[in-house]
């Protein structure tokens, strides 16, 4: 009965739900998550990193590019607070470069990535003061309550770098579901896992239902039920037949269960 496995194994490839544009989060309903390289911290859909070395402002920009990012400029108070918290963990008296400057026109601040609109600027008390007329680069610092200060671009500070998070698949293998069979390889058309449905809906068939299970968080197996008028119902389960054997029961209606564990459970005699 070896052919059974070939006939009834349903491969459900996990396709990315849509092309990810730069500002997108990872699709929340597919089994992927945002991830960052080591030594980068995830916030929203981006990863943040403080350089361990100190640089002047121009070299800080380059240092961020060298590690695959760009110098960060916060766009909201929430983002600024996150960055400040991260910096405080490294140094309670931190001074860190951000990608804002008024080099070109004194008093007109520009922040990288915020061109074409008002840049997000939250200054510390009495800042920006362009002390002695040549403070053209922005830091955030514990010395101004985690707010911004204009200072000399030649000073040596750590740089705040940012890059987009990667969307990593939790499972690199496509998920495969196999139909439940008895020990002789006969399909069990009237045995299903009961009382574990997390969602059910009318389906076109097994592949459709299997795709839904693959992208539903918590789905472990699924049932295909047939109604009296011939409709197929896809029932997504939060458990498996081996985890809850008592609920893997005979039904008085057409019902077939598919699970990942069934694939290894086929006997070839
Ligand atoms: Ca200035
Ligand atoms: Ca200043």
UniProtKB/TrEMBL annotation:
Residues 17-154 form the SRCR domain. The keyword Signal applies. PROSITE patterns: C_TYPE_LECTIN_2, PAN, SRCR_2. It comes from the Eukaryota. Residues 178-263 form the Apple domain. InterPro entries: C-type_lectin-like (IPR001304), C-type_lectin-like/link_sf (IPR016186), CLec_Tetranectin-domain (IPR051663), CTDL_fold (IPR016187), Pan_app (IPR003609), SRCR (IPR001190). Residues 43-162 form the C-type lectin domain. Transmembrane segments: none annotated. Keywords: Lectin, Signal. GO terms for molecular function: carbohydrate binding. This is C-type lectin domain-containing protein.
């Amino acid at each position: 009965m070896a052919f059974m496995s070939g006939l009834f194994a349903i491969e459900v490839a996990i396709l990315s739900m849509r092309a990810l544009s730069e500002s997108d989060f990872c699709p929340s309903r597919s089994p992927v998550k945002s991830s960052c390289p080591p030594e980068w911290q995830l916030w929203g859909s981006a990863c943040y990193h403080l350089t361990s070395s100190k640089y002047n402002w121009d070299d800080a920009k380059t240092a961020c590019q060298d590690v695959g990012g760009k110098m960060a400029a916060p766009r909201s108070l929430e983002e600024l607070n996150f960055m400040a918290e991260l910096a405080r963990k490294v140094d309670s008296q931190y001074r860190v470069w951000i990608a804002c400057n008024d080099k070109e026109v004194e008093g007109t601040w520009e922040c990288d990535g915020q061109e074409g609109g008002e840049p997000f600027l939250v200054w510390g008390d009495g800042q920006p003061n362009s002390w002695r007329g040549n403070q053209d680069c922005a830091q955030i610092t514990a010395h101004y309550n985690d707010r911004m200060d204009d200072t000399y671009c030649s000073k040596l500070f750590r740089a705040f770098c940012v890059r987009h998070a990667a969307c990593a698949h939790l499972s690199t293998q496509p998920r495969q579901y196999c139909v439940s069979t008895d020990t002789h390889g006969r399909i069990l058309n009237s045995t299903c896992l009961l009382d574990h449905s997390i969602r059910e809906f009318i389906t076109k068939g097994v592949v459709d239902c299997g795709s839904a299970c693959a992208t539903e968080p918590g789905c472990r197996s699924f049932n295909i039920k047939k109604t009296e008028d011939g409709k197929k119902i896809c029932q997504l389960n939060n458990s498996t037949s081996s985890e809850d054997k008592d609920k893997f029961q005979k039904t008085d209606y057409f019902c077939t269960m598919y699970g990942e564990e069934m694939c290894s459970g086929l006997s070839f005699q």
